[in-house]
């Protein structure tokens, strides 16, 4: 019997979703408004326009339209690498000896190596449509920078990527990919901005930080004609674009005649998990049968499991608006961890609200050595070398499948395999050599981060 | 209209070919027999058994069975990453402004990053079936080592990969991938073999060569219980396994209602091009309408375009049997070139014979800077960052499409996109920086190589 079940299902191109799904339109309680840090009033499209493309600013604040049409040019670009496969993890099930059915939605079949391209191409499209010529952004590990470079290369937009200096130095190949697609990589802090020069004057040897890189990218965007700033996670617009993941997964699961009992995703800024679970969350919010949702985060950066639900800055440099979210404090410095994409102090306001209200059922923090153990097993039996970020979801999917083995339940588990680990081999080398260690912040470490959360009279 | 044409076609899993196609069964003139270098008699299965798995030795010498059934376990493994997509290069056509229809068969959607996995899993399967416990191989650039490590990891076989020392040093991440799948990487020359120790005694600082690595891997295979040696190209068995590429491409093209006018593949050892063109060659050999076939090789290592059709050793160390093929001489050292997979002095005996007899219509040598120019354009418009090897085929596909632009012909062009360039970024960096140079061997350079071709009384 099991032999007749396909190993994977690719939807046809004509089945590619035509709309992104805006989960805010269905939420019982909308997330608290994003605040202008000067006025402490809810931000408006006008507030955001100097920084973001107008259409994206509108998407950011759109709480009412359930469906946003995917522009045809974006949909055509999607067809280069989408629909992505939904894979039945036959070999993993067999290796675990579990009665559970494990499925994963794979987003790594494109050169950016991850789901980031889904939002990058949309953001570049709106910039092009608005007649802009240039974009700026920051990148830490480099996935987002790569995805946006591909998108800007495609639409003929200039792109400046402020890349955290130590990362640019350690990962020359990431820099090389970005440059191959025609973007400019500027190690941050740099002498191209005021904030960069200030940082360099204070410390000429600074290895940089994501906070500084964001500040540099924003400064260039707001001070340069025809230029805007874009971001690869956390924002509502990004989560919106990523709902294509969940929609495809749901349609493909229907072809398997399956509905998930558990949906698992890694959560850094939250856009991947938010996108994967969105259409299933729609079922939950409509009062229908729905899966148990699990967000997986690194034990070293536990914003959902140990953070505070509070208004905070989205960046370390405190130049962004304030968002009500689960946060470790914008000054929290996560310990060295190989999942660069999950080292974020906060969490998407949408996911934060859903978690606060009990719709996102559970968050689980896992340690990186156990994550890499799961990653290696997965690579061996399912072929694909997973990204460390994605492997957080693999870890918990395996744990849930092993529970099923104990109880004899044949649950259907869906997880998001957000990307591949081809640029993360230093991490695998460290794990293979047995030199990787775990780190869990103490309550005191967290307390220091919490002290940086702004005290807002009458709001917080 | 063009919007209704799919950007890519994935066959269904049940359409995955059930047989490999043995083009030798249809060749008008079989290739000259492989000779035992001691006796100069055609090798037998018994001659090959100490080195190769028995079933693979049989496949190597099988000139009569048109179809070889793909074992079910291999076919199931294929389902992890196959059928591979056939892509209509809409965006490339548009960028070139050509009336040509360009299609490419993409083989890079797996962690080995190339088509090599198609043969690696088959070879590992037969080893497992024979009750062997271990395999040995060599790797230069690392793609083949990665593919075989994945295959051996899957079937639980031990694997020793002799990796050319300078490559192991320069590409620690390739080594890391191989080790992550559980294989052992031994920089060659090593002190684990007699030939390695001999090389080290002569030159302790030797950076190694493919020839030495092959000799080490073969020595370990023939001297260790339950162990055999495997190779990733050149051999008939490898070309046989790669025919899955062409069969899928042909079936998918039929769904597009297309038949190619031109089929283009890069050619190093020849297994990729051989596999891609095999089912179309069957048409040609049956006297039906068939495409124009073009083999593309680097100008720095021009075995088909400037080599001799002669009996020669398949390795630099002269430990292998003799094959009649286009060769630059087993001692020919190609100049530094970033396409490691194409730096081979010889060519598959099957392809050599087909080229000699005029069935493989044309061979074209291209220079690497023009190859990288094509690669960058392709990456920008079609998304995927191509491997340097594959980019040789892209270069010629673009050239043919531009000819169509001049003539107004709407030819159908099919080329093989064998893999991705994610581990070739040093090459892209060199091209981006403008420091990449071309090299074409002089007639004198070639003459030196030709002098190494053995003089075989009454045979050569």
Tell me the greatest interface.
A-B, 45 and 45 residues
**Chain oligomer state:** homodimer
Treating each run of at least 4 consecutive H or I residues as one helix, how many helices of chain A?
18
Task: List how many beta strands of chain A DSSP finds.
Answer: 15
Helix fraction of chain A by DSSP (H/I, runs of at least 4):
40-55%
Spans of chain A of at least 5 consecutive residues whose pLDDT stays below 50 are none
The coarse overall form of chain A would be: globular
Largest sheet of chain A: 7 strands, mixed
The secondary-structure class of chain A comes to alpha/beta
Q: State which percent range the strand residues of chain A make up.
A: 15-25%
Q: What would you note in describing this structure?
A:
Two copies of one chain form a homodimer. The longest helix of chain A is centred in the middle third of the chain and has 20 residues, at 236-255. Chain A has helices at 45-48, 54-61, 72-81, 90-96, 116-129, 143-155, 165-170, 172-180, 194-202, 210-223, 236-255, 271-285, 303-306, 349-356, 368-382, 388-407, 425-432, 443-450; strands spanning 8-9, 19-21, 67-69, 86-88, 101-106, 134-139, 158-164, 184-188, 227-229, 262-266, 292-298, 308-313, 322-327, 362-366, 412-417. The mean pLDDT of chain A is 94. In chain A, strands 1-4-5-15-10-11-14 form a seven-stranded mixed β-sheet, sandwiched between helices. A four-stranded parallel β-sheet of chain A has the order 8-7-6-9, sandwiched between helices. Chain A has 18 helices and 15 strands. In chain A, helix 4 (90-96) packs across helix 15 (368-382). Chain A is α/β, with parallel strands linked by helices and 460 residues long. The A-B interface holds A 3, 6-8, 10, 12-13, 76-77, 79-81, 87, 91, 109-111, 113, 150, 153-154, 172-173, 176-177, 179-182, 376, 379-385, 420, 422-423, 425-426, 428-429, 432 and B 3, 6-8, 10, 12-13, 76-77, 79-81, 87, 91, 109-111, 113, 150, 153-154, 172-173, 176-177, 179-182, 376, 379-385, 420, 422-423, 425-426, 428-429, 432.
């Amino acid at each position: 019997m099991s032999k007749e079940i396909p190993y994977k299902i690719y939807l046809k191109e004509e089945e590619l979703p035509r709309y992104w799904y805006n989960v805010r339109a269905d939420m019982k309680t909308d997330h608290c408004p994003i605040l202008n840090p000067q006025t402490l009033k809810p931000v408006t499209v006008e507030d955001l326009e100097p920084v973001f493309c107008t259409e994206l600013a509108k998407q950011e604040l759109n709480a009412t339209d359930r469906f946003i049409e995917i522009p045809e040019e974006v949909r055509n670009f999607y067809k280069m690498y989408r629909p992505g496969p939904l894979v039945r993890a036959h070999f993993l099930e067999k290796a675990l000896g579990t009665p559970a059915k494990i499925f994963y939605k794979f987003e790594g079949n494109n050169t950016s190596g991850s789901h980031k391209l889904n939002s990058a191409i949309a953001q570049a499209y709106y910039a092009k449509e608005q007649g802009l010529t240039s974009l700026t952004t920051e990148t830490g590990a480099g996935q987002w920078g790569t995805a946006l470079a591909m998108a800007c290369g495609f639409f003929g937009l200039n792109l400046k990527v402020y890349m955290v200096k130590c990362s640019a130095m350690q990962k020359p190949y990431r820099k090389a990919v970005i440059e191959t697609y025609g973007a400019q990589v500027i190690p941050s802090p740099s002498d191209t901005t005021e904030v960069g020069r200030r940082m360099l004057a204070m410390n000429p040897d600074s290895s940089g930080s994501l906070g500084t890189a964001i500040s540099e990218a924003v400064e260039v965007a707001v001070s340069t004609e025809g230029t805007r700033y874009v971001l690869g996670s956390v924002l509502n617009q990004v989560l919106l674009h990523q709902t294509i993941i969940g929609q495809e997964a749901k349609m493909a699961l229907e072809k398997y005649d399956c509905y998930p009992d558990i949906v698992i995703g890694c959560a850094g800024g939250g856009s991947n998990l938010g996108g994967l679970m969105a259409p299933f969350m729609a079922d939950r919010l409509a009062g229908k049968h729905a899966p148990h949702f699990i967000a997986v985060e690194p034990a070293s950066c536990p914003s959902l499991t140990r953070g505070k639900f509070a208004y905070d800055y989205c960046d370390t440099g405190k130049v962004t608006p304030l968002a009500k979210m689960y946060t470790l404090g914008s000054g929290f410095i996560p310990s060295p961890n190989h999942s660069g994409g999950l080292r974020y102090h906060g969490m998407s306001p949408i996911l934060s609200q859903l978690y606060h209200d009990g719709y996102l059922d559970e968050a689980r923090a896992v340690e990186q050595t156990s994550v890499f153990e799961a990653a290696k097993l997965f690579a061996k039996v399912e072929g694909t070398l997973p990204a460390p970020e994605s492997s957080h979801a693999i870890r918990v999917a395996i744990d849930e499948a092993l529970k099923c083995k104990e109880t004899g339940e044949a649950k259907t588990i869906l997880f998001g395999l957000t990307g591949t680990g081809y640029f993360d081999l230093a991490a695998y080398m460290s794990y293979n050599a047995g030199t990787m260690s775990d780190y869990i912040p103490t309550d005191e470490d967290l307390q220091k981060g919490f002290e940086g959360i702004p005290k807002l009279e009458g709001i917080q």
